[in-house]
Amino acid sequence: MKIKPIYTILASSFLLIATTLSLGCNGGQNGVGADGKRIVKIAYLPITHALPVFETKEELEAADDELQVELVKYGSWPELMDALNTGRVDGASVLVEMAMLARQNGIGVSAVALGHKDGNVVISSETIASPNDLKGKTFAIPHRQSSHHILLNEALKRVGLTIKDVDVVELAPPEMPSALASGQIDGYCVAEPFGAKAVLLNVGKPLLTSEELWEDSLCCALVLNDKFIEKRPEDAKKFVASYKAAGKSLSKERAKEIGKKYLEQDDAVLETSLQWISYDDLDVTPEIYASLVERVKEYGLSENPPSYDDFVKGSL
Ligand code: ZN
Question: Which of 230, 256, 282, 313 has its CA 20 to 30 A from that of 276?
């Protein structure tokens, strides 16, 4: 398979500049803030897929809870994974396949909940009428270890093509709409709102939704560092319960409000984007994980992904 990063061509400042930024940071040493409250530090990328993390922070803050969330923003998935793997953060909302690979490589990280269900779209230029037309074309995904890569494979499989028929490139999410507009790529699949942006900018159209390609598809997961779970089991439990409850209570209106605050996107982009995603059931069940493992193996993301028991801490 041909995957060649084209970050250098596009000179992505998004990727190259470390954009670590704390929002509402009051974290201190040993997980205790200056005000004496306990802190859980969570890494994220500014995408709609991380909305339940933002809502959890908002709800714990509003309740003046003894446990508070500190958000740490990253500019790319590799940077975020590095922070998670080295324990600079307690957890992250991250592409589940990247965390699975880390686990497979012996790093102590565990999935405790989903980030969302569905919520991805295959975007193409107007000239692409069906996945058939992607043959010989250039298609961007954010990372080889992603559900976006799986969804591209699913779209091609429908018309009897494989990944070998397409020139696949890895690109940082915010670069994708402009790369499509300039003709550098012919389509892409990436976390929202960067699909909706192309639609609103009139530079691309939704070719297929993740729902059409893979029902109840997984993508991001809430992943915690095992050291954090071992050291602070009660905080881990409380955080995960608050997170799942936040996902359940997240109405479209509230999601839009939170999206505006944390992602700085306008109403039209969020409205388009949020119609494709759900947050109400964030449990990682054995069935849903099995549907992911099957695809991870089938499409060559990994030959030996971690088992459910090894990677998922569903009881938290
Ligand atoms: Zn996602």
Answer: 313
User: The domain 120-213 belongs to what CATH superfamily?
Assistant: Periplasmic binding protein-like II (3.40.190.10)
Count of helices and strands (H, E) across the chain: 15, 13
Query: Can you give the residue ranges of every domain in the chain?
Result: 10-118+218-311, 120-213
The CATH fold of domain 10-118+218-311:
D-Maltodextrin-Binding Protein; domain 2 (3.40.190)
Compute, in angstroms, the gap from residue 210 CA to the centroid of ligand 1. Answer: 11
User: What is the pTM for the complete model shown?
Assistant: 0.89
| 203 CA from centroid of ligand 1 (Å) | 22
pLDDT in tens, 16-69: 333 334 333 334 457 898 889 999 999 999 999 999 999 999 999 999 999 999
Q: Under 8 Å CB-to-CB from 206, ≥6 apart: which residues?
A: 121, 122, 123, 195, 199
| Cα 54 to ligand 1 centre (Å) | 14
Q: How far is the CA of 175 from the centre of ligand 1 (A)?
A: 17
